[in-house]
Specification:
The protein is about 75% helix and about 5% strand. With about 400 residues, the protein is mainly α. The chain has a 3-stranded antiparallel β-sheet. α4 packs across α5, α8 runs antiparallel to α9 and α9 packs parallel to α17. The N and C termini lie far apart (about 100 Å).
Length: about 400
């Protein structure tokens, strides 16, 4: 019966009415029909005056995209409310009504409606895989079965918060090199298109051969003036093709993940980030009582790098045949000796989850320090690159004037 009820299409209805004191109240409710909305309002002591279905177009125009940090905040709120003894459905109602993002509000109320119809929390979350991955659903399922849902949600919230912090650091690390290239290109393009032509008009009256460096810069300027649309169009097409290939091509993503690990400085940061994710995820799942082999399946997708994901899946197969985790890790050649030794100590002492948590803490701090160092290194580098580009163009433009002065 619960399955049948869960399959009924739920729509979002906006309603207005008056409460027992005669005060005007309004809100939104998910239901399968206006009649059921009115019945629910009367049950709550509200006299319904208007009930209308919200159009999909109206909802879309007001929605903001649901970010991963929204899910992290939602998980923490839910964990806190359940730990305080608030019933699950009421917790969803409070969180949903209080959220500023209409899209997030709709998601939370949709899950609440599924739970009210008899669906378990883990099944309700699994209906939204774009927001709640297999790892989260597995942990929630384990919490529901063991009767410690509040404890497991607290672990999930901590895991999400740590993961979001790590993501932010990685984005920061990748932002600076991109900023250097973009700023350098824009400054150079402006100088070639708008500034160099002014000097070219001046040099045309000299009646003498220009230095080779100056001639090269002027030729480049003429090319940019004539074909700037092709240059910018090609760059835009390449960026679009890159984004599409990253979305659609698994082989391209594998190639990109391997390539990133080979880049100096950035590669080191990405390796440490992958190890931190691996340790944090496995620690969270193992502490929740998820069997090691099952946990490794979810961990593979959480590493954020195809090379490490493939290695974790190979480790899972080896552990399934009875091999120790630390030996399987050692054979991949992707984990530093310190990490392998920490895991070995954890396996021998029966404290694998706490040891993995320590590894995760260490490597998250390493990533943080590496990003700060990279930022400090790139700030003067940006100035140096811009100085070379601008200085080079200035020298090229003034060389004929210096040459003429020396001849005089």
């Amino acid at each position: 019966m619960a399955t049948k009820a869960a399959s009924v299409k739920q729509d979002l209805f906006a309603w207005e009415g008056t409460d027992k004191k005669g005060n005007r109240v309004r809100g939104e409710t998910r239901s399968s029909s206006p009649t059921l909305v009115k019945a629910e309002l009367r049950r709550q002591g509200i006299l319904p005056l208007k009930v209308r279905k919200k159009s999909a177009l109206t909802s879309r125009t007001k929605k903001k995209k649901i970010e991963s940090r929204d899910i992290a905040v939602f998980t923490r709120q839910l964990a806190t409310m359940l730990a305080a003894g608030v019933p699950l459905v009421q917790a969803f109602e409070i969180i949903g009504r209080g959220h500023e993002n209409p899209a997030m509000q709709e998601l939370v109320l949709s899950i609440k409606a599924d739970i009210e119809s008899g669906t378990t929390l883990n099944e309700a979350l699994a209906k939204h895989p774009q927001y709640f991955d297999e790892l989260v659903c597995d942990l929630v399922k384990a919490g529901e079965q063991a009767g410690v849902l509040d404890t497991l949600l607290d672990k999930i919230a901590t895991y999400k918060e740590k993961t979001e912090a790590l993501k932010s650091k990685i984005k920061k690390a990748l932002f600076y090199p991109t900023a250097v290239m973009v700023v350098a290109f824009i400054v150079t393009a402006i100088l070639l298109i708008f500034v160099v032509p002014q000097f070219e008009a001046l040099f045309s009256n000299f009646g003498a051969d220009l230095p080779a460096f100056t001639r090269m810069v002027i030729d480049l300027s003429e090319f940019m003036q004539e074909y700037w649309w092709a240059v910018f169009g090609s760059i835009g097409a390449l960026v679009y093709a890159f984004i599409q290939a990253k979305k659609r091509s698994r082989k391209f993503n594998h190639f990109l993940d391997r390539l990133v690990l080979q880049i100096p400085i950035i590669g080191i940061i990405m390796r440490k980030a992958a190890i931190a994710r691996y340790a944090r995820t496995l620690s969270t799942m193992f502490a929740a009582g998820v069997p090691l082999v099952d946990a490794l399946t979810s961990v593979a997708g959480a590493t954020g790098n195809a090379l490490y994901a493939e290695a974790v899946l190979r480790m899972r197969d080896q552990v399934a045949t009875g091999q120790q985790l630390q030996l399987a890790m050692q054979q991949t050649g992707l984990f530093p000796n310190m990490v392998v030794q920490m895991v070995a100590i954890g396996e021998e002492s029966g404290s694998l989850d706490s040891m993995l948590a320590k590894v995760a803490d260490f490597y998250e701090q390493e990533v943080d320090d590496a990003v700060d160092s990279l930022s400090s290194l790139l700030e003067p580098l940006i100035m140096a690159i811009l100085g070379i580009l601008v200085g080079g163009l200035v020298v090229a433009m003034y060389l004929p004037i210096f040459k003429m002065g020396s001849a005089i």
